[in-house]
C-alpha cells in the first residue's frame, strides 16, 4: 500500500460523504451540540509510517464526548491495573448507553467501561481522592501528550451544560454509590466525568492520539511505549465488543475494526498494525452513533482491506 | 513462522493442559455428556499452508453442540442472504445462552444467531418447508464437505436425550412461534436443531471444517470458494462479538480471536489469514464455555502472535 | 336494601351499557372469540338471600377463559392445600398476563395463580398423574355443582383452536417444566388447561358458581360448605390483588371488589357477605379485561355501596 | 362487639408478641434506626366510637418512614386531584421498594405512590414551586391535625442521616428528573421527602391519624370531612394493592386489610367502617415490612372478624 492509495481512498470517501443526504440527527440534549452543522464531515488516517491522509473538516474541533472513555480507561489501567475489574466488567451490555437496568441486576457493577455507568466508575477510580482539578489536568495532559498537541482544551460551556442537564448520569452515579462502587463524592466524580466528555478535538488530533493502540502500545513517531503491547490489544478488544453501545455488533459486522463513538459524532477506529483513524459527522443513528462516520469507516476498511476479520 | 514453531507451541500447550487440575464442570443435563472424561483434551491447528499441528486427543469425537451454529448460520446466509436478518439480530445479548427475557422485550427476534433462540430461528430458515430428514442430510453433508471427511455422523442417542429434556429450547421455539418468527411446525424445527447439535466430530475434523473462515471464504487446499470473502469476515465478526454467550467480551479480551464454543467442551477459533483451530476440554466455566479450551487458545494466540487486536 | 333497589340498579346499568359506543376490541386470536358480537352485554347479581337480578344477555353462554382459574385454584387448594404455594406465588406480577420474563428471574415459579403461567402450574397440580379426561371431568362437575346447573359444557371448538394456536402457553409450560415446576408431561397439562378455559357459561351460571366466595365459603341456598371461611377470604384476596393482570390496581381503585376477568369478556366479582356478580361484554381494554364489564361493576359497586374499601 | 372484646384481643396480642423470638432484623442503613430496641412492640386500635384499645409500647415514638406516603398521597390528591395520575401509576410494582428497573421501562413514571420513586414524585407534586420549609410545615401540620396532637415532630437527626446516605433515592429522583417527571430541583424535592420520612410518631398518634380512612373520609370524633368518601375508598384500595411493596399480595392474603408499612417497623392498617390500627415492631422481614407487625394484624383481623374479604 502506497501513501497515494490511502490518500486517494480518503479523498474519495470525503467526496462521497459530502453528497449524502441521510445524515441522521444531531444530538440536541444540550444547546452546544444542537448547534453543530449537520453537514460537517472530517476524516483523518495516520498510518504506521506516520503518513497522514486527511479529508473534509479534518481540523475542526468537535466535542469528543464518549471517545474520552478510551483514554480514561487507558489511564485507569495504568494507575490500578487489573484491580479496575473489581468495579467494572468487560462484557457487551445488550442495552442502551445510559441504561440503569443492568446495574440493578448486577449490584452496581457496570458491564463495561464504555457505557456511561462504566465510564463514571472508571473516572472515579482515576479521581481516587485527588482534587477534580488535578485529575482533569492529568487527563487533558494525557490527550495533549498522545496527540503531540498542547492546544487541546476542554470546552467549558459544554461541560457546564452537561452538568446542568445530566440527570441520568447523576442517577447512575448515585445508584452505583449506593452499592459502594463509587468511592469519591458523586458530584466530584461526575464533575470530572462531565469535563472529560467536553474535551474538544479535531479528527487530526484524535487520530494522532490513537496511534499507540494501532501499534502495540507504542507511539510510532516518538517510539515512546504508552502501554505494554498486551494492554493495547486488550483495549482494542473492549472497543470492538463494547465501543458502540447496543450497535457494537453492527459496527464489528460492517466495519470490522475496534472503534469508539461519541455523541458529538466522532469515532476513533483502530486498524491494528496499520493505522489510527478518526472520523466526524455529527448526525447520529438510533443507537447514538455517527451514521456517516460508520459508513465512512466501512468503506475505508473495505477499500484498504483493513478488517481484522480477514482479507 | 515455521511449521516447527507451531508444532512445538501446540505440543507445549497440550502438555501444560494435561497437568491442570482446575478443569471446570462437565455438562450434566444429559447422560451422554455427563459421562465424558473430564480429563480429555485435544487441540488441532491447521494453518494456511495446510500444515496440521495436533496435540492430545486430537482424533476423539465429541458432541459439537453449539459450534454447529456457525455452520447452520453459514448455510442460512447462503440460502436466503440478508433476509436472514429479518428474524435474527447480530448484537451481543448481554444474557445467558438460553435466556428468554430478551425475546419478550424484542418481540420474538433473537439478538444473534449464536444464542439458542437465534440458532433455532436460523434452523427454521434452513428447514423452510423441507422435510427435517433432508435438511439434516444437507447440514451433515456440509460438515463432511468442509472437513473432507465423510465419516462424520450425528450421535442419535445425544439427539434423543436432548429432545427428551430440552424443555427450555421447546419453550424458546414456541415463544418465537407465537410472534411468527418460526415458520415451520415447532417440533420439526426443534427436531433438526437437536440433531445438528448432536453432530460428533474430532478436533481434527472441526479445525478442517473451519478453514474457509480463516482464508477469506476459501478452502485453501481445494481452492473451493465456500462463501464470498466479505461473508467470511462477517461470520468471524459475529463469532467475535457473540460466540461465547455472556463470556464473549472475556474471550475477545483474553484470546483475541473469533470463536464459537459448545457445551460439549469444544471451541472453534479462527486466526484470519493464518489458521483454523479446534480445541476440546469438556470442563465448563460458569458461562458454559470450555475452561481449558479458552486457556489453551489464550496461550496459543499469545505465543503465535495471532491476536486480531495487534501484535 | 330491598330486592327492588338491586333490580332497579341492575336494569339501569344494563340500559346504560347498551348505549355505549366505546366498547373496546373483541379478542381475535382464535376465530371462535373473534366472531362474538361486540354489542353483547349481560349482568347477573345473586345476593345473600338468593335473589337474582339479571340484565341484558344474562343467559347467553360465553367462553369463561381465565375466570376458570378461580375455580381450578379453589380445587387445587382443596386437594393439596398450602403445598400449592411451593410452585406458585401470590404476589401481583407487575406484567402482562402472558409474560415470561418474571419466570426467568424467579426460576420458573409464577407470581400468582391468575396469570397464565400460574394457572398452568395450578392445573398441573390438579392433574397430578391422573388422566386429563378424568381431571377435566372433575373441573366440569365442580362448575356444574357450584352453579347447580348440569348443562354447563366445554366448547370443544374453542379448546381445539386454543390448542392449535397457544404457542405462548406452550412456551410457558415448557419453560416451567425446565425448572421442574411442571410435573406431568407438558402436553397433558396444557390439554387440561386449554379445555378448562373453553368452558362456556352464562352470566347467570357464573354468578351462581361464585356464591360460595361471597358467603364465607358456603353456598347460601344449599348450606353446603365448599371451602372453609378463611380459604374463601384468601381466594378473594388473591382475586383483588392479582385478578386483572396488570390492571388489578386499577380494578381495585375503581370497583373496589375482588374480581377475575377472562379474555372472553366475562368478569366474576364478589361483594363479600353481599353478592356474587357476573358481567359480560366481549370488548377488551389494553390489559385484556372487559371494558364495559369493568365500568358496569364500578357503577354497581358505587350505587349499591358495596366497595370493600368503605362506604 | 363490645369495647371489652377489643380491649381483650389487643391485650392478648401484645402479650403474645412479647414472647416472640423470631423478630426479624432491624433496619441498619442509618444509625438512628439501627439503634432501636428490637424487642419494642406497640399496638393501638381506635374504633368508630372513638374507643381506644392500646397494648405494649403504645406511646413510644418511632420513625414512621414510608407510612408518611399515605398522608402525602392524600395531600397531593387534595391539591391537584386526578392530575396526580399523570406522573404516578396505581398498579402494584412486582419489585422491591427501591427498584429502578421499572422506571426505565415505563419512561420515568413510577408504578404507584407507595414505592420510593412514586412517593418522591408525589412529594414533588406537593412541593410545586413552594419553599421546602413551607411544604414540610404543611405536611407536619396535616399529621398534627389528623392526630389531634400538636406535639408530633420531625426527627432531624434521622432526616440528616437519610440525606447523607440516600444515594439510591437521589438516583431515583434524578432518573425521574431526566424524564421530566420531577419538576422542582431534585435536591429540594428529596429534602422534603427525607424529612417527611423522618416524622416520629407513636402508635397512638398514628392510629388517630388514620381514622378518616376508616370512616369514609371523615374524622368520627370531630365530624370533619378530610376527604370525600370515594377518595378514602380509593386510598384504601391503593394501600391494599401496593402498601407493602413486593409483599402486598402476602399482606392481603394473610391480614385482609389495607395497610402501609414503614422501614422503621410501623404499619398503619384500616378496617373500613370499623377501626384505624397502628402497630410497631422494628424487626423486618425480607421485603422490608415489620414481621411481628404483620403477624399481630393477621391475628387481630382474624379474632375481630375484620377482613375486608369476608367473615
Automatic annotation (TrEMBL), chains A, B, C, D:
Enzyme group, top EC level? hydrolase
Positions of substrate binding = 66, 116, 162, 169, 193, 245, 263
**Keywords from the UniProt entry:** Acetylation, Hydrolase
Task: Kindly state which reaction or reactions the protein catalyses.
Answer: L-glutamine + H2O = L-glutamate + NH4(+)
GO molecular function terms attached to this record: glutaminase activity
Q: PANTHER family annotated for this entry?
A: GLUTAMINASE
Entry's EC annotation? 3.5.1.2
* Name of the protein in question: Glutaminase
Source organism superkingdom:
Bacteria
The keyword Transit peptide belongs to this UniProt entry's keyword annotation? no
- Provide the family line: Belongs to the glutaminase family.
Q: Which spans of this chain does the record mark as coiled coil?
A: none
Task: List the lineage, top down.
Answer: Bacteria, Pseudomonadati, Pseudomonadota, Alphaproteobacteria, Hyphomicrobiales
Q: How does it assemble?
A: Homotetramer.
Q: Which organism is it from?
A: Candidatus Afipia apatlaquensis
One GO-annotated biological process of the protein: L-glutamine catabolic process
Amino acid at each position: 500500500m502506497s501513501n497515494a492509495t490511502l490518500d486517494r481512498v480518503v479523498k474519495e470517501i470525503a467526496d462521497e460523504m459530502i453528497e449524502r443526504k441521510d445524515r441522521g440527527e444531531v444530538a440536541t440534549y444540550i444547546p452546544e451540540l444542537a448547534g453543530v452543522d449537520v453537514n460537517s464531515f472530517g476524516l483523518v488516517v495516520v498510518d504506521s509510517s506516520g503518513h497522514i491522509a486527511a479529508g473534509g473538516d479534518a481540523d475542526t474541533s468537535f466535542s469528543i464526548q464518549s471517545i474520552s472513555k478510551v483514554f480514561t480507561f487507558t489511564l485507569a489501567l495504568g494507575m490500578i491495573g487489573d484491580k479496575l475489574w473489581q468495579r467494572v466488567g468487560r462484557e457487551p451490555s445488550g442495552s442502551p448507553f445510559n441504561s440503569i437496568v443492568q446495574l440493578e441486576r448486577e449490584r452496581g457493577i457496570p458491564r463495561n467501561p464504555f457505557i456511561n455507568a462504566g465510564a463514571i466508575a472508571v473516572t472515579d477510580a482515576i479521581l481516587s481522592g485527588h482534587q477534580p482539578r488535578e485529575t482533569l489536568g492529568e487527563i487533558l495532559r494525557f490527550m495533549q501528550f498522545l496527540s503531540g498537541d498542547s492546544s487541546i482544551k476542554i470546552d467549558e460551556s459544554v461541560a457546564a451544560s452537561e452538568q446542568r442537564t445530566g440527570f441520568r448520569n447523576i442517577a447512575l452515579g448515585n445508584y452505583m454509590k449506593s452499592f459502594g462502587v463509587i468511592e469519591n463524592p458523586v458530584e466530584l466524580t461526575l464533575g470530572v466525568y462531565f469535563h472529560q466528555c467536553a474535551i474538544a478535538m479535531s479528527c487530526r488530533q484524535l487520530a494522532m492520539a490513537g496511534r499507540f493502540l494501532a501499534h502495540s502500545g507504542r507511539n510510532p513517531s516518538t517510539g515512546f511505549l504508552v502501554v505494554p503491547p498486551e494492554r493495547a490489544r486488550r483495549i482494542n478488544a473492549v472497543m470492538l465488543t463494547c465501543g458502540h453501545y447496543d450497535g457494537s455488533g453492527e459496527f464489528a459486522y460492517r466495519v470490522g475494526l475496534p472503534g469508539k463513538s461519541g455523541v458529538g459524532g466522532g469515532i476513533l477506529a483502530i486498524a491494528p498494525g496499520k493505522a489510527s483513524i478518526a472520523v466526524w459527522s455529527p448526525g447520529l443513528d438510533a443507537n447514538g452513533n455517527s451514521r456517516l462516520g460508520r459508513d465512512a469507516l466501512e468503506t475505508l476498511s473495505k477499500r484498504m482491506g483493513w478488517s481484522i476479520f480477514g482479507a
